[in-house]
Design goal:
The complex is a heterotrimer of chains A (313), B (274) and C (415). With 313 residues, chain A is an all-alpha fold. Chain A has 16 helices and no strands. The two termini of chain A are 21 Å apart. Chain C folds into 2 domains: 149 residues, 3-Layer(aba) Sandwich (D-Maltodextrin-Binding Protein, domain 2); 192 residues, D-Maltodextrin-Binding Protein, domain 2, CATH 3.40.190.10. The chains are: A mainly alpha (313), B mainly alpha (274), C alpha/beta (415).
């Protein structure tokens, strides 16, 4: 462990005391303000383009905003009516459970696959960059295509059922069975999402200086021990960021499920996002859709807090 | 970092290719299907190889998508650049300069991301209409930045935590200003993270559909994703266009990543930079 | 990037901007051209061509009016129209799907064009179904572009191979023939029953022809109609995947040869022709011989939005232009729609035998909002949940329909 610390400091040297010139005292206010110029543009951006939509949406969730009222602009406030209506619909609760299951399973597999790939690609070998770019394609390709592709794969006569035949499992109409439909969408989502985790983690691992590993190797640590004691701890900020962003993006997944199942059969594979869409754009009840959106925000906040708490331990 | 070394690096390449093929296998259907007719695509007997290669699917797709490449490219490049310009300094300031209000900014950014895009675009549409930038590229760029900036801030913040601040301290002591230190020390050392974030800030608008859908109706200004979406018409799905078009859309982005990933250098060279 | 613009450059830029905008305004008013923006969701190249031809002809006849077509994807058209109206930049015309017209009219964005429309010679000749879709009392909120409905497409070769001489005409024949035509992996019949409007739409011919109504699903006719579908799926004549197919995907099944028959509308004729399949079109099978099929009405309507009176007038002029019988016939043929104007439709049917079953059904075709008015969308939502529950076996036909009926009752009374 001492060698570890030594290795870390060796990388970032501070010039020895005798070579340091006498520090000039910068005017106190100057030092104080300069950092704020760093964040000025982003502050302006946030206030203008992020704050406004958020407050608009929050306000909308408390208004009766449907076809009749939206256009004229005077949407009467109806207190918690939108929320009450949402919370009393069975589909909403089903969607909530589905979303939690969907998110948890997706992230688990996406992160694991992404991390293993990040480790593998640390080696230098020919065609490495080409393979990395190819592996990004599931994420870059339009979700439309991925959705139809997996829809075709899970067809009654599709490859998944054919493979199932080899194992003696009878073919199922995956997308037409409650429960299985959701599972199919999860598989599709894992496929789409692993490159995101892969590249971000890969960059993070790349940033770890070799000397640290050398020191540990000399100490006799095996490969997986090095991963466990060096890579993971150093990578913690990146891991937290990737998991947090991943959770947010996964809860918002919409296109994929909408095209694969439309929330069916019989509303059993709805996610909160598809349910919000159905309410907002099919039934044109924008107020209620905003209420569901607020619930989504609260859900994600809780999930993230939950993750952070787990990290603390 | 190397796991128990194989004798030759080419062995890794082989394993890498196998992994890639397995993970990308669903794309096989897309690739082969792009050469098939609709009738063959949906025939009851799943065919692994097109009976005859309908190259005209591809020529049609290229013809329809070509005018939109420029739009997508401009939007993606501008979004990526603008995002980095305003986010890199901010991430640095938040992580190392401990500016006040950093907690609020971060949490606000993150919370804004939790709102589903479909709900987010309604007020954005209203706001941009009032600012008269609907149906303009700058409008779309600003719209796309609403998701690239928070992403960039969070990820850059994370990558920056690995940064050795002592380097900057030394420079400050030497009399350099904050910005000078930022440009000459922080940026070069964290280049890996910055390039990665730049790549994603390019790819996210490239693949975005919802914001483009809500903010652009002018045919001439539509990015690739919107043109491709037309394959899903109300009356029928244009499979040949969809499949060939998807690959055409993904290809330039993949090439961009190949080019840019050369800059993601492994850790063992980083120690030499200062 | 514009956020950091140094203040010093402003005055010069500003002067230039002001001058050029004044010039633009002057030029604009000098030409006094009215632009009518038409938002739509047509994507088939043939349709686009048809629209562009009309645009050319119209602009030639009316040099002071310009037409601009703006494409908005199907699912977003309604909300986008509303949003544009909300920010006071409404399009001139919106091509709204007929079941939504009266719902949207409630928001006040549509202009009542009854005064002008009643003077159109073709208006009197319009079928009652489409007319009802756009009429609220004495107000008229749109003019149908064309209509479509549902019929039975059948693969001639597969039928003859299986020894089925004629396409089925009754429900019993339908069940029997579908069974005969099912030879793994080919299914006898394909329908579209996904978790959206299309499921209700495809089911309506069956429940309505049988005398049932969406407003009371607990009646026997409704139960029998749903039982028909359940039987077809249970017997294996219809794939369970039908619950995942949109109509385009259902069409893919028929074109690919995975289904011998399909319930489909005329808009698919173009694609089916292209595929080279030898097919025919027959009227929707009815419960018993002699009953006339009652099919739901599809098809979009030109709806004029409230806004600049000059634009509104120009829009009405455009609609009148399109209503010319010869032009109407060309347009509807390009779109594979049946004209909502009787004389034109009859001509279409005579010229094209594949359109004939649709034409014959137009007399009894029913506009969907007749069941639930502005609440039709929610009525449909309840109905299709019942359909899917019954098809998956999650609930019995009786239970599923009772459930839906309970949800629909308050909506029907709200009308």
């Amino acid at each position: 462990m001492k060698q570890l610390e030594a290795a870390r400091t060796r990388v970032s040297p501070v010039p020895p005391a005798e070579h340091r010139p006498v520090p000039r005292r910068k005017a106190a206010w100057r030092r104080g303000l300069a950092p704020y110029t760093f964040i000025l543009p982003i502050l302006v951006f946030t206030l203008l383009l992020l704050a406004y939509p958020m407050f608009y949406s929050l306000t909308l969730s408390f208004q009766d905003a449907t076809v009749d009222t939206f256009v004229s602009g005077d949407m009467p406030f109806n207190g918690f009516a939108n929320y009450q209506q949402t919370l009393s619909t069975g589909t909403f609760w089903q969607a909530l459970v589905n979303t939690i299951v969907f998110t948890f399973c997706s992230i688990l597999f996406q992160f694991t696959i992404g991390f293993l790939l990040a480790l593998f690609f640390q080696n230098r070998f020919p065609l490495k960059n080409v393979l990395i770019a190819l592996l990004l394609i599931p994420w870059i390709a339009p979700v439309l295509t991925a959705a139809y592709t997996f829809k075709g794969l899970f067809n009654e006569v599709g490859p998944v059922n054919q493979v199932a035949h080899w194992f003696g499992i009878p073919s199922l109409p995956w997308l037409a069975l409650p429960g299985f439909a959701l599972a199919a969408t999860i598989v599709a989502n894992i496929w789409i999402g692993f490159p995101f985790n892969f590249i971000l983690l890969y960059s993070g691992v790349c940033g770890i200086p070799q000397e640290i590993y050398e020191a540990a190797r000399i100490d006799g640590a095996s490969y997986w021990r090095r991963v466990g004691y060096i890579t993971l701890p150093i990578l913690k900020p990146v891991t937290v960021a990737v998991l947090m962003l991943g959770t947010i993006y996964t809860v918002k997944v919409f296109d994929l499920v909408w095209i694969m199942t439309g929330g069916g059969p019989a509303n059993t594979s709805h996610l909160l996002s598809t349910y919000a869409y159905q309410v907002g754009f099919s039934l044109l009840n924008f107020g209620q859709a905003a209420a569901i959106a607020t619930v989504i925000v609260v859900l994600i906040l809780s999930l993230n807090l939950f993750q952070l708490l787990l990290q603390r331990k | 970092m190397r796991p128990p070394a194989f004798r030759s690096p080419w062995l890794y390449t082989v394993v890498g290719i196998i992994i890639t093929v397995v993970l990308l296998s669903p794309l096989y259907w897309v690739l082969m299907g792009s050469f098939m007719t609709q009738r063959e695509l949906f025939s009851p007997h799943f065919s692994f190889w097109p009976r005859e290669f309908m190259f005209q699917n591809w020529t049609t797709a290229v013809g329809r998508l070509w005018p939109h490449f420029a739009t997508s490219a401009i939007v993606s490049v501008c979004t990526s650049t603008a995002t980095l310009l305003i986010t890199a300094p901010a991430a640095y300031a938040i992580v190392w300069l401990k500016v006040r209000g950093r907690g609020a900014i971060l949490s606000f950014m993150l919370t804004s991301q939790m709102l589903p895009a479909i709900v987010f675009v309604i007020p954005l549409f209203v706001l941009f209409s009032r600012m008269d930038i609907v149906n303009t590229l700058p409008g779309l760029i600003l719209g796309d930045m609403t998701f690239t900036v928070p992403f960039a801030l969070v990820m850059l913040g994370a990558y920056l935590r690995e940064f050795p601040y002592q380097l900057v301290e030394a420079a400050l002591v030497d009399g350099a200003g904050q910005w000078r230190a930022f440009f000459s020390i922080v940026l070069p050392v964290t280049m890996t993270g910055i390039i990665t974030v730049a790549i994603f800030s390019f790819l996210m608008p490239w693949g975005d559909l919802i914001f483009a859908l809500s903010l652009i109706t002018e045919a001439g200004l539509q990015p690739l994703t919107l043109e491709l979406y037309k394959a899903r018409g109300a009356l029928g799905i244009d499979w040949s266009f969809l499949l060939a078009g998807s690959l055409l859309t993904a290809l330039p982005a993949a090439l961009f990543v190949v080019a840019a990933s050369r800059f993601i250098v492994s850790g063992f060279t980083r120690g030499a930079l200062h | 990037m514009p956020l950091k613009h140094p203040l010093t450059k402003f005055p010069l830029c500003w002067k230039f901007f002001v001058c050029s905008s004044v010039a633009a305004v002057c030029l604009g008013t000098a030409r006094s051209e009215t632009t009518v923006e038409i938002v739509h969701y047509f994507t088939v190249p043939g349709q686009i061509q048809g629209l562009q031809d009309i645009q050319k002809d119209f602009e030639a006849a009316n040099p002071d009016i310009k037409i601009k077509f703006t494409y908005i994807p199907f699912a977003e058209l309604l909300s986008r129209t509303l949003q544009m109206a909300a920010v006071h930049k409404p399009p001139g015309i919106s091509c709204i799907d007929n079941p939504d017209v009266r719902h949207v009219a409630k928001s006040g964005v549509l202009q009542d064009i009854s005064a002008s429309v009643e003077k159109f010679p073709t208006w009197q000749d319009t079928y009652p179904g489409p007319k009802h879709a756009v009429t609220e009392g004495t107000k008229v909120y749109g003019v149908p572009i064309g209509s479509n409905s549902l019929a039975l497409f059948y693969n001639k070769k597969m039928l003859s191979d299986a020894g089925v001489t004629d396409p089925p005409k009754t429900w019993d024949e339908l069940k029997e023939d579908s069974g005969k035509l099912t030879k793994s992996p080919v299914y006898g019949l394909a329908i579209s029953a996904p978790n959206d409007e299309q499921a209700t739409w495809q089911w309506e011919p069956f429940v309505w022809t049988n005398g049932g109504s969406l407003l009371d699903l607990t009646t026997d006719p409704a139960k029998q109609a749903l039982q028909l579908w359940v039987d077809l799926v249970k017997s294996g004549s219809v794939s369970k995947d039908c619950m995942n197919w949109s109509q385009p995907e259902e069409g893919d099944q028929f074109i690919g040869g995975q289904a011998a028959m399909m319930v489909m509308g005329p808009w698919m004729l173009g694609q089916v022709h292209k595929s080279g399949i030898d097919f025919g079109v027959a009227p929707i099978p009815v419960p018993k011989q002699g009953i006339k099929p009652v099919v739901p009405l599809g098809g979009e309507c030109w709806c004029v939005l409230k806004g600049d009176p000059k634009v509104e007038a120009a829009a009405v002029k455009f609609i009148e232009f399109v209503q010319d019988p010869a032009r109407l016939e060309t347009l509807c043929n390009t779109f594979n729609y049946i004209s909502s104007v009787r004389s034109v439709a009859v001509k279409q049917g005579q010229a094209n035998p594949e359109l004939q079953p649709f034409v014959l059904q137009m007399d009894t075709a029913r506009a969907r909002p007749e069941e639930g008015g502005a609440n039709y969308t929610q009525v449909s939502l309840a109905a299709r949940t019942a359909i899917q529950q019954a098809l998956t076996g999650q609930a019995t036909v009786d239970a599923a329909l009772a459930d839906a009926a309970a949800k629909i009752k308050p909506l029907a009374e709200k009308k």
